[in-house]
Write a structure and sequence with these properties.
It is a single chain. The chain is α/β, with parallel strands linked by helices and 500 residues long. The protein has three domains: 255 residues, HUPs (Rossmann fold, 3-Layer(aba) Sandwich), CATH 3.40.50; 154 residues, Isoleucyl-tRNA Synthetase, Domain 1 (Orthogonal Bundle), CATH 1.10.730.10; 57 residues, no CATH class. 44% of the residues lie in helices and 13% in strands. It contains 16 helices and 15 strands. The strands form five sheets. It has a four-stranded parallel sheet with strand order 4-3-9-10, sandwiched between helices. Strands 5-6-7-8 form a four-stranded antiparallel sheet, with helices on one face. Strand 11 and strand 12 form a beta hairpin. Helix 11 packs parallel to helix 13. The chain binds one RNA strand of 74 nucleotides through helix 1, helix 5, helix 7, strand 12 and strand 13.
Length: 500
RNA sequence: GGUCUUGUGGCCGAGUGGCUAGGCAGAGCUCUGCAAAAGCUUCCACAGCGGUUCGAAUCCGCUCGAGACCUCCA
């Protein structure tokens, strides 16, 4: 049996996964900043880590998954940049910061549900851990790695580096170059050194979010919350820390510095970074005009889209590439994913109708077993979902052949049939978190449909194809697809239902 | 400018130094009243130039191109 290998950004190689306290695994993922809508790129990242979380569970680990909500810092009001929230307006016209936080936190959770992402075990907020953050700053001050100026506290990167702690270990930067790079920028700064970063920022009186601290009223620095909350819930050193590639520097670099500066330890054994999402060859961004919100993707309410796509199809498209690769999507890719997903889901439901009459182990049985094993070893190879999906497609071909009688069911042993069920449910449903299309559970509708199907069959038997085609077409228009030699079934109605 | 990543067939995308990735699309066939679905067969690759090697899409170098980060960002 293969063992799980994970690419570690810190060491830049694949490593055999060995949790600190098996079977327990600590997983920390940087969550969203909730002052605007999450976009589709965020969804890819959180889908990737959802799959990783699910696969760890699938492998029998007991995972504590912590994903933070960043709700402190430079909150602006809804109108975004260009609007000075400090200008005096009637109090009620301004959104309360926590109102914004609430709105976008709820929105984020809704999107997570639509994409069938499991909630983390703990979802801590930055504002809920101000005291702990202040405590960590005090430790850093005590360790001589931070200094206070005018009510703000900064991390002393140069000093940290002199203590043989390599700042830049994760992102491959060296501080001389960084300093040189900053020198060109404006130097109006109270920091001792341009690469120092804020642990605590003094707040001007009109700043809307501020807390009391030993250094006066202020708010915590941007990198501190993750250090504090990962340590609090997972320990000073835990197994996996994840986040988007764009957080590698400076966010994760600073996090490491803060943790080492405080506890003298690397916070995480493994750092994982998921890659970015492009649309039509470009990074999704407002300035390119190709930034699409998840909800727009689902409803199709966007000029660049021809129609809406189901969250499952979108997620399937994500899973067809490796989490660490850049992914470029477009309309055609979405359409392809829709069809591909349907093929796999159809194969999955066909398994239920198969019968196994094999008495000995046939070639087919052996093929099924080796493909099932391949799924595991593909996933164990740094969560290679693309390859695993390819393997599932190979199994789908076998299933379809069995269904159509092209492969005789005396070639299929009952153990293999069971294995097919286990694999399709295990990977497609449990690990990838893909939901099957909705099955009809309405008994009356079922009975009515059987009457209609019977009528159509009689028309067909009389060669009255006008009538039989009419029935089929009318049903199609109502979202029910009728295929000959088959039962009728519902056609993807659930999506639109979910949106309204 | 610096750090890092990357360049695969019509599109999207895996990939180990030597063996068909896969999906969707295209072509042909089977099935079919017609569709749909499904099955089988098939076409189209590894940016360019060198090098290492018995052998490289896979390793090294250069050229060209793309992207991310260096400022909040998944």
């Amino acid at each position: 049996m293969s063992k799980l290998q994970i690419y570690n950004s810190l060491t830049r190689k694949k490593e055999t996964f060995a949790p600190i306290n098996p079977p327990h695994v600590g997983l920390y993922v940087c969550g969203p900043t909730v002052y605007s809508n999450v976009h589709l790129g965020n969804v890819r990242t959180f889908s990737s880590f959802d799959m990783i979380y699910r696969y760890l569970i699938f492998c029998g680990y007991k995972v504590r998954y912590v994903r933070n909500i960043t709700d402190a810092g430079h909150l602006t009001n809804e109108q975004g940049e260009g609007v000075n929230r400090m200008e005096s307006q009637a109090k009620l016209e301004l959104l309360e910061p926590m109102e914004i936080v609430q709105k976008y936190t709820v929105g984020f959770h809704q999107i997570c549900q639509l994409f069938n992402l499991l909630p983390p075990n703990i979802e801590p907020t930055a504002t809920g851990h101000i005291i702990e953050q202040i405590e960590m700053i005090e430790e850093l001050l005590k360790n001589g790695l931070a200094y206070e100026i005018n009510g703000s506290v900064y991390f002393d990167v140069t000093k940290y580096n002199q203590n043989k702690h390599p700042y830049g270990i994760l992102s491959g930067r060296n501080i001389e170059e960084l300093i040189a790079g900053y020198r060109d920028l404006d130097g109006q700064n109270e920091k001792r050194n341009s690469i120092d970063f804020a642990l605590w920022k003094a707040a001007s009186p009109e700043h809307i979010m501020q807390w009391r601290s030993p250094w006066g009223m202020g708010f915590p620095g941007w990198h501190l919350e993750c250090s504090v909350m990962s340590t609090k819930y997972l320990g000073e050193t835990f197994d996996i820390h994840g986040g988007g590639m764009d957080l590698k520097f400076p966010h994760h670099e600073c996090e490491i510095a803060q943790n080492i500066g405080t506890y003298g330890k690397q916070p995480a054994n493994i750092w994982m970074h998921t890659n970015m999402l492009n649309f039509n060859g470009q990074k999704m961004s407002k300035s390119f005009g190709n930034s699409i919100l998840p909800i727009e993707m689902i409803t199709g309410n966007h000029p660049l889209l021809d129609k809406g796509y189901s969250p499952m199809a979108i997620k399937f498209l994500f899973l067809q590439s490796h989490y660490s690769s850049e992914l470029d999507i477009n309309i055609k890719g979405l359409q392809d994913a829709e069809k591909g997903l349907k093929r796999l889901m159809d194969a999955r439901s066909h398994i239920e109708k198969l019968t196994a009459k094999g008495t000995t182990i046939s070639d087919i049985d052996q093929q099924i077993e080796s493909l099932a094993n391949a799924c595991k070893s593909n996933m164990d190879d740094d969560f290679n979902t693309a390859k695993t999906i390819a393997t599932l497609f190979d199994l789908a071909t076998i299933i379809n052949s069995l269904k159509d009688g092209i492969i005789n069911n005396n070639q299929l042993h009952s153990d293999s049939l069971q294995l097919l069920k286990t694999v399709f449910n295990g990977y497609l449903i449990d690990v990838f978190g893909l939901k099957p299309m909705e099955e009809n559970t309405n008994k009356i509708l079922d009975d009515v449909m059987n009457v209609i199907i019977q009528l159509r069959k009689e028309a067909k038997d009389k060669k009255d194809f006008m009538t039989s085609d009419k029935i089929r077409n009318e049903l199609q228009a109502k979202g029910i697809q009728l295929k000959d030699e088959k039962k009728w079934r519902h056609h993807l109605v659930y999506l639109t239902q979910m949106m309204h």
